[in-house]
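Board notes (copied after class):
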Amino acid sequence: MTNNKERQTYIEQFLVGFFNDGAYRCEVVTADASFRRYLRVYHGEKSYILMDSEPNKVDNQPFVDLNANFALAGIKVPQILAQNMPHGILLLEDLGTEHLADHISGPSRLEHYMAILDILPSIATVTKSTSMKPYDDGFITQELEIFENWLLNSWLDYELEGTVKERWQETKLSLVNSIVEQPKVTMHRDFHSRNIMRYDHQWAVIDYQDAVQGPITYDAVSLLRDCYFKLPADDFLILQKYSYKTLKKEQLLGEMTYLEYQYYFDLTGLQRHLKAAGIFARLLLRDNKAGYLDNIVPTLQYVVEVAKRYDNYQWLATWLVSEIIPLINSQLNKFK
């Protein structure tokens, strides 16, 4: 592992080599939920984004491979201007500072969301990359176990036992089956309001490096049941139906009816949101990032709302409300 001084030296050498001088300045943009760090680099009248990710912590090849594949599909992604893969440094086109998250409360919300849902068929048909991990039974189960291992066991010190353990095992199997039986397409896998940007009068996509071939409903769930923003109920129903029509028009759903689509949408959301809640706990415990803690309960509220609608999952709603969410709230009170 390199230290901060060594990485700073690598970055300085990289930028001097790119600009042919040292007349640049940098400011930290953000450190995201991964091990990546982003800097905005100014040189003359232009700005750039430098992605700093140590190669012993992050495999940067999927980012590079999928950048090309997404661009070939006609999806706006940041252009890679220069790279030093051995040191995990990439210089990207600067797409500005506007995200969908900055537009979700405005009067044009439905218009914006529909325009973004129109991108889904293009993402779905992105050429499969060798960098994509197989989104198979084992991978899906592993994601669900992030909730169990990090949120329940590690953070809440809660052990699954007896009937609850049996039902949790049945739920995992059921959710895996509901995902693998859907039509498989390329999915972004983290398609939400913070990863969609407004640039040059068009919508652009970032953080696509974890794309896989998976269930057709996944990206629509990510967008419309966003862990960081809850759509009003009426808007949600309009946009859910629009997402179905958009995918159906492009013949990506086969013979799936709208009722079937809603069912798969709901169950895919259960898997995604359980995983996300676990990741938020992992970010605290493993990475010392407490900034996502306030998203845990709202994310699990999606699970509660959906689970109540289905006989097989009503136990999950009851268990979360009666046992798990109170424990979470007790933990959260320690941070206040």
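Comment from the instructor: The chain has a mean pLDDT of 95. The CA atoms of residues 236 and 245 lie 14 Å apart.
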